[in-house]
Amino acid sequence: MEQYHEPLEKLDEKTQNITRAITSLKEELEAVDWYNQRAQASQDEELREIMAHNRDEEIEHACMLLEWLRRNMDKWDEELSTYLFTDGPVAHIEELAMAGEGTQSNSLKIGDLK
Question: Which of 18, 51, 64, 81 gives 38 a disulfide partner, CB atoms 3.0 to 4.6 angstroms apart?
Answer without folding.
Answer: 51
